[in-house]
Amino acid sequence: MALSPPANLPWLQRPLDEALGQLRGHATLVHGPSGVGQFEFALLLAQAWLCEAPRNHRACGECTGCRLLQSRTHPDFCLLIPEALREALGWGAEGEARDSEAKSKAKPSRELKVEAVREAIGWAQQTSSRGRGKVIVIHPAQAMNVISANALLKTLEEPPAGVRLVLSTADPELLLPTLRSRCQRWTLQLPPEAESLAWLRERGVARPEVLLAAAGGRPLDAAALAADGASAEAWLGLPQAVKRADARPLAGWPVPRAVDALQKLCHDAMVIAVGGTPRFFPAESLPPGADLGMLNAWSKTLVRAARHDEHPWNAALLAEALVIEGARCWPVAAPAPGARRFATLNSR
To answer: What distance in Å separates the CA atoms of residue 112 and residue 114, rounded to the nearest whole number?
Structure first.
């Protein structure tokens, strides 16, 4: 992952320059909507602080320090992310010792456990190897459980000299108040739509305006949606397919992605039912006439499914069951009396 310059995420350019000119504390909390690059922003901050030949606060991208960080071997950089997110964040375990066979069979944790936090604290107390201080990045910060978060408090209050911490999250309210109060906040905003669309087009995303709307304006989420096999055509056809109880547009989608898509469809159908403007689907793609009470019941089912999306479901059967329940939200119109008599006569 190349970290400098941030041309791969152009909307981070201005906030990065502003942050590097204004951040003075030892602990920074980077937050904002998911899918705008909090993690990448935290890495860019770390590289700038560890750069050995900075240019106007920005990392040069060429010095030994920058190259070490880009190759993920910088001795003064520590990254804490859950095992389950390493592959998704593009921060694999190359160069690390292989786990034992028994451990490799264990399900990757989505939490940052206290052992990892304590190890990072011990590492921070050691002398800097290259003389530019040390940086710890924790993402997502809410992955720390209560024990892990409490273990970090002492370091946030009295950090070793030259140590800076960056915590990143999409929702700072999920963190302990004691953690939030000890950090200088930096908020990232949704990038302009035109900038997001241009970035998605550069990556070969067809009809990016559809997937950007599907992702709520979050460009990284839109790119992930495309990477998971969702095309603009499939997204636009999903509402009518659900009305027909047809789950085929969701075939091959990961369970969390399929459930999320159905939740967004349910949300927009409820908005349409009360005369509002949909957010994730074009209004013309949404079938009218949905029953609000049935939509409410379907929404509760989808929330339950989302809570257990890591369960080893049969993805195809789960998607079919959720789509069938969704189809019931659009009652089939009763045939006219003459049509009913004709069908009865033909059945004799």
So the answer is: 7
